Amino acid sequence: MSSIEVKPSTAGMTPGRELAGKVALVTGGARNIGRAISRSLAAGGAKVMINARTSREEAEATLAMIESAGGDAAIHYADVTDPDAVAAMVEATVKRFGRLDILVNNAAVRMEARFADIRLDEWRHVMHTVLDGAFLCSQAVLPHLIRAGGGAIVHIGGQSGHKGARERVHVITAKAGIAGMTKAMAIDLAEGGITVNCVVPGSIDTVRGLPGAPDRSEERKAIPPIGRRGEPEELAAMVRMLCGPDSRFVTGQAIHVNGGGYMP
Question: Which domains occur in the chain, in start order?
Answer without folding.
Answer: 18-203+214-257 (3.40.50.720)
